[in-house]
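job 3f2a | input accepted
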Amino acid sequence: MPQDLAGWLACIEARHGQRIDLGLERVGTVHAALDAASEALIITVAGTNGKGSTCAMLECILLAAGYRVGLYTSPHLLRYNERVRIDGREVDDATLADAFARVEAVRGAHPLTYFEHGTLAAWVCFAAAPLDVIILEVGLGGRLDATNIFDADCAIVTSIALDHMDYLGDTREAIGREKAGIFRAGKPAICADPQPPASLLETAQAVGAALQLSGRDFGFSGDRTQWRFWGAGVKRGGLAYPALRGANQLLNAAAVIAAIEAVRDQLPVPMQAIREGLMLVDLPGRFQTLPGQPAVVLDVAHNPQAVGVLAENLSNMGYYPETWAVVGMLADKAVEAALERIAGRVDHWLPASLPGPRGLSAEALAKRMASIGLAVGEARFESPADAYRAARARAQDSDRIVVFGSFLTVADAMAAIHAER
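job 3f2a | predicted structure (421 res):
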C-alpha cells in the first residue's frame, strides 16, 4: 500500500491498462461503497474549451461572496494538488493520500482509471469538509465522464468543437450530445456556445432541463472600459473585464453570471462579489503573459478552436518584430488544422517532443508542420523546456515567445521558467 501521494499517483497510473475508459458503472459502484455524502450545491462544467476558465471564475466569485467552495479540475500543470481545492487552497499531500487510500479500501475488484480514482478521492475530500458549493470540471465529454455520477444542481457547457473524436464522435452533433449528458431534469443548463449543435437542444428538451442559451436567454455587450451582462429580467452593468485575458473570456464570464443567477435562491451572490471575483481570477496557462522581456505567452491551446482563439489574442497584443513559437502536441490531435490557425502569427518554429505513447516526437511534429507549408527549419528539441531555453537565447528583448500545443508543453516550459527564478 503506497504511503504518500507520489506513491499513490504512480500506483494508479500503472494499474489500469487504458488511461481513458469511459463509463459510469465502475466508478458509480465504488462511489456507493464509499458512503461519502455532501449537502453542497453542485455545479458541473463541460465543454471543449473554456472549462478551466469558467471554473476559475465561478470559484473566485463564490469565494468573494463568502461561500465555502470545493473545486475539482484537470489536468494539472506542476502539482497534482492543483486539481483539488478547498476554499481557494490546494488540498495537501497527506489529505489526498488518505483519500486515495479510502477509495482503494472499498474498490474491491472494480478497476478504476487514473481519472476515476482521482475523482472519487476529490469527492472524499469534499465530503469531509462543510462546503456550500462544489464545482466539478468534466474531464472528457460529459455523459460518461466520472464526474457525471454526481447530479448537477446547475450544468454549464462552455463550447463545442472537434476534439477527442476517437471517444466522443467526429461531428459537433455527436460531441454536443455527449456534453449535454450532464444536464438534469428541472435543473438549470447553461450553454455558452453561441451556435450550439441541435443535439444539445434536443438532449436538454428530452431530459427536461431548464436550458439557457447564450444570445437568446442571456448575453453581454461592452465598450473599451467595461461590459454589461443581460439575462431574463436581469441586467448587470459596470463590470470590469475578467482578469483572464482574451476576447473569448466574456462568453465564459456571461455563462458564469447566468449560472449564478440561476441558483440565486440557494446561493445569493451580491454584485460586488461578481465584480471582485472577475477582477481577481487567475488561471495559469490560459493566455498567461509573463512580465519582462522578451514577452512570454503560455497557453494550453491544443485543438483548432483554441489555437484560433490564441492567434486572435496574439494579434491584439500589439507589435513584436519576431514571434518564436515553442510547440509540442499529442499525436491524436488535429495538428495540421490547429497550426494552420496560427501560422500567420509565427516567424520561428521550435518543435519539441512530448513524452508518453500519445506524444509526438519533435521530428514527427516537424514533418506534419512541413506538410502544411510551415518553414520549420532544422532545429528539433527533446523537450519543451529545451525549446523554451533556445527561444530565450535567440529572441531579442523586443520579440515575443509563445508556448502552446498541450498542457504537457506548457507544464514543462513552466518548470524551466520557475527554475530560472
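job 3f2a | The two ends are 37 Å apart (CA to CA).
job 3f2a | closed
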